[in-house]
Amino acid sequence: MVTASAVTGRETANVEAVRRMTAADPVLIDVRPARDVVPGMTERTVLTSGAPLPWQAYQGGQRDGIIGGVLYEGLAATPAEATAALSSGQVTLDGCHGYGCVGSLAGIYTASMPVFVVEDRDTGRRGFCNFFEGGSVKRLNYGCYDDEVRDNLRFVEREIAPFVGEAVRRAGGIPLKPLMRRALHMGDELHSRNTAATLLFGREIYQPLLDLARDDRDAAGRVISFLTDNEYSFLRLSMAAAKVMADAAHGVDGASVVTAMTFSGAEFAIRVSGLGDAWFRGPHGRIQARLFDGHTEDEITFMGGESPITETVGLGGFAQAAAFPLQSYQGGSAQLMVERNLAMYQITAAENPDFRIPFFDYRGTPTGIDIFRVIETGVLPLMDVGVPGTGGGQIGAGVLEAPISCFTAAREAYQARYG
Amino acid sequence: MVTASAVTGRETANVEAVRRMTAADPVLIDVRPARDVVPGMTERTVLTSGAPLPWQAYQGGQRDGIIGGVLYEGLAATPAEATAALSSGQVTLDGCHGYGCVGSLAGIYTASMPVFVVEDRDTGRRGFCNFFEGGSVKRLNYGCYDDEVRDNLRFVEREIAPFVGEAVRRAGGIPLKPLMRRALHMGDELHSRNTAATLLFGREIYQPLLDLARDDRDAAGRVISFLTDNEYSFLRLSMAAAKVMADAAHGVDGASVVTAMTFSGAEFAIRVSGLGDAWFRGPHGRIQARLFDGHTEDEITFMGGESPITETVGLGGFAQAAAFPLQSYQGGSAQLMVERNLAMYQITAAENPDFRIPFFDYRGTPTGIDIFRVIETGVLPLMDVGVPGTGGGQIGAGVLEAPISCFTAAREAYQARYG
């Protein structure tokens, strides 16, 4: 039986967790190879999306992506050698979240890959995200690896990232929350739509790139094209910023607020503020997708994804009514987006003081998913996601519903711990 | 009595007028001093907002602005001399609209002022708009003129405009409609909110500015700041593009669609496609404003404005449901904006094929105000406007309702002409 004081204690703890989450002030301070900045990252580490699994449990595109990462890093010469190195433990395979990282789709991190370094001005905590691979359909994070994928990754590593880092340092760091706050007033929800945030970020980096253009006009032009031509570009920054915010809310004694939602190719999982580092795992959630022309539902596959860190902090599916344009991409209607967004208020502990929705007359986004509210209402967290296909590459976009079993498992653990 | 065939003829004509309006494809091709590009502009011409009036009829801030223009251009040394030159006709004073120009507020154009040159790729027709004067509260278009105003105008003329022109020419021209179309999906309605369009324009001009930065880094930095720091920046381009579109729709025999709405300090006026160059004049419309802190309603004044050319082509007040963020600036609520926007469909001849509103599931904006529908429904066109104060400068923003008498006057003329 739940007593009134237990509920009160939990609610107080949740208020504190959300307070920490929303007090976080993420600033992009640098771009560096993962080995130089990600704590615990070694030359022989490969990170991937989802609650950690033994190597043998990874499947499909995610497995292919992990092998691709080993090859890219030169830790093996062939897929067979890579598989052997992963099986034997010569290569350390682990989940991104434990390293302050978040993976897009398969989410492969290796030592040489550049990462955005985002630091919380409030606590000094850091979060990281690696780079968008460019416009090619074939990408490592969609489970592809060949010469083209390698060349694109190398291009980003050598021709883009160092100059972005230089510009960011010249700018003295770029605070991300003001850009995110504004982007929500410009049609973005900062998960599946980042059009405005990408432009706002471009404006921040123009001036330092003009300095750079004096010495190397081509590099400056290349960097600005890379950063602003693709409208998804800001997503990696949104993810790193959300990771910093979510981690800030983690570890509040008694709090039942979710601090991460993630999935591998095998399963969905959540982490809860007051429940330590345990992952509460379940099957994949239900997805309602709008597929690109020429694709069918039977091609839909799961190969991992940690971009739902954005929903964890009140963005993405929790801010759909800020992003009506998204309907042309992932389906639905404005009315449905309003209804879905309103439903999320039923399962959250607070309203975001920074992220606000103009259509709701600037009401704050629903923030801080409370596992108890999810179970009591039966309303499941919704995530705006890109949809990969079995043949590799993105085949559409849609809305993913978290599975209830992760929440019931977390509630059991909560009751076992707190009574 | 109106016969069925008369209505049919009118509707057919209106369809053609709106077809021409929406077929226009405005491209920013250059920036030049007005004297070099505006047909009919002489060294001794001053243009101002509103249907043309004799000099003696201009009053308040608009009168001060006109005098300021004469002084700025060196056509007189003192306000008294300027007044004499205007009275005697030594300086030609006329309305902007007759010259392919549109004025912001008092809307003063003189020969040396740089203008954006916007050309319709469909017809070769050109429209012009002069430059935003910068962030100072004191501006010529708000009826102020002193050393500070002069220095700001000179700065734009000498330190900004030539470089913008250079960048635009290097870019090979910048098509505006794609930017406008996208901005409507990013919270702009392109009259009182131009935040996204300004950023989108910045992205278009950034690469040529990098070239420029090799020779003159400071100029490139100055230009990008000028063009993108102020979020209203794109309005001048939106106005010039709308002017080109509206002029394309002008002169269709039998069409009862409005092709310009404008006001001076003295009166409101409209022009109608099938009624030649006549202006149908009336009193100022009713304004519902949200004033900046420290200002009161009795300070509200009219000193001219031609930015309602944007409403004429289906933007601004006709696209409020694309711009919910605007409520924080000009008051109201999301619900009110939806209702107002829906009302505009009652008085328009068509839905815009390019300008679409995500919240209305991408329905085209109401486009082509039909004077007969305005009279039949009693629904008055709404315009999103900045509000000037008697003390000079902007004191708020709001929604302006066009006066019915312009429409009844136009209907009389229509019936006199077409029976």
Explain this structure to me?
Two copies of one chain form a homodimer. By secondary structure, chain A is α+β, with helices and mostly antiparallel strands. The first copy, chain A, has two domains: 4-16 and 254-418, v583 fold (Alpha-Beta Complex); 23-238, Enterococcus faecalis V583 domain (Enterococcus faecalis V583 fold, Alpha-Beta Complex), CATH 3.90.1710.10. Helices cover 40% and strands 20% of the residues of chain A. Chain A has a four-stranded antiparallel sheet with strand order 5-4-1-6. In chain A, strand 13 (382-388) and strand 14 form a beta hairpin. The longest helix of chain A has 24 residues, at 147-170. Chain A is globular, with a radius of gyration of 20 Å. The model of chain A has no long low-confidence stretch (mean pLDDT 95).
Helices of chain A, by number, come to 14
CATH superfamily of the largest domain in chain A: Enterococcus faecalis V583 domain
Distance between the termini of chain A: 9 Å
Biggest sheet overview of chain A:
4 strands, antiparallel
CATH class of the largest domain in chain A, named Alpha Beta
Output the keywords:
homodimer; alpha+beta; v583 fold; 2 domains; three-stranded antiparallel beta sheet; 14 helices; globular
Give the secondary structure arrangement, pairings included.
Two copies of one chain form a homodimer.
Chain A: H1 4-23, E1 26-33, H2 34-37, E2 45-48, H3 60-72, H4 79-88, E3 92-95, E4 114-120, E5 126-130, H5 147-170, E6 174-175, H6 177-183, H7 195-215, H8 217-228, H9 235-248, E7 258-263, E8 268-272, E9 280-282, E10 286-291, H10 309-312, H11 327-330, H12 334-344, E11 348-357, E12 363-369, H13 371-377, E13 382-388, E14 394-401, H14 404-418
Parallel strand pairs in A: 2-3
Antiparallel strand pairs in A: 1-4, 1-6, 4-5, 7-8, 8-9, 10-14, 11-12, 13-14
